[in-house]
Amino acid sequence: MSGGSTPSAVASHVLIGVLAVQGDVREHLRALTLAGAEAVPVRRPAELAAVDAMVIPGGESTTIDRLIRIFDLAGPLRERLGAGMPAFGSCAGMILLADRMLDGRSDQQTLGGLDITVRRNAFGRQVDSFECDLQVSDLPRAQDGPFRAVFIRAPWVEQVGDGVEVLATVAHDERRPVVAVRQGQLLATSFHPELTEDHRVHALFVQMVREHTDTIDTRSAPTAGTTNEEAER
Ligand code: GLN
User: Fold this and answer.
1) Does residue 142 sit within a domain?
2) How far is the CA of 127 from the centre of ligand 1 (A)?
3) pLDDT (tens digit, 9 = 90+) per residue, 66-123?
4) What would the pLDDT profile of 50-61 be if each residue is shown by its tens digit?
5) What would the mean pLDDT of 201-227 be, rounded to a whole number?
6) Which DSSP symbol is given to 37?
7) Structural domain of 43
8) Which of 43, 50, 97, 224 has the most CB atoms around it within 10 Å of its CB?
């Protein structure tokens, strides 16, 4: 089986939230758990404040945009993303993490964070949904072969900024649009990795969250000397 990575005894514990207003919430929770993280649904600002990182599932980006505003999550999500919280967006989630969007609804907003331009529903009506084998860079266990990617009314990435790493492209007509990107602690895919039993994309994200959390912990931990001085004052 090609399930998630087994958490090692020394791996740091990470708590990852899945935005639970619409979309494949259960599937993401399961994939994250199999990839070695603790995962919880997030619907409220207090729940968001408790997690190390967030997954924004696919669904309908216009609906998710509307619901996070109604649930008072849009502002707190923007703040956390701005402060460097790791996040993974799949499909509609990729749209929400994009700084720029084409073919959105006129009143539609994104959260931003990723220096990319996405085009909504980019593959058009004829190929509304499809599956294919993709070569995805940076995945753990590359020897397991290509990643079976499920696309459902998917966006693609039309333009990437300097700091953005392209992880995968797909053949489409005469073009080769970008369908997976990473920028620092942010990850996004046009496809739905939660819908297959291959959890390597989630494992990559868990690894990114661990690396990020370890860095922050090291930086923010006071040294013993500082603590003693503080206590003596
Ligand atoms: N077409 C949808 C949107 O624009 C995305 C589809 C999906 O997430 N499966 O939000």
Assistant:
1) yes
2) 14
3) 999 999 999 999 999 999 999 999 999 999 999 999 999 999 999 999 999 999 999 9
4) 999 999 999 999
5) 73
6) -
7) 15-219
8) 97
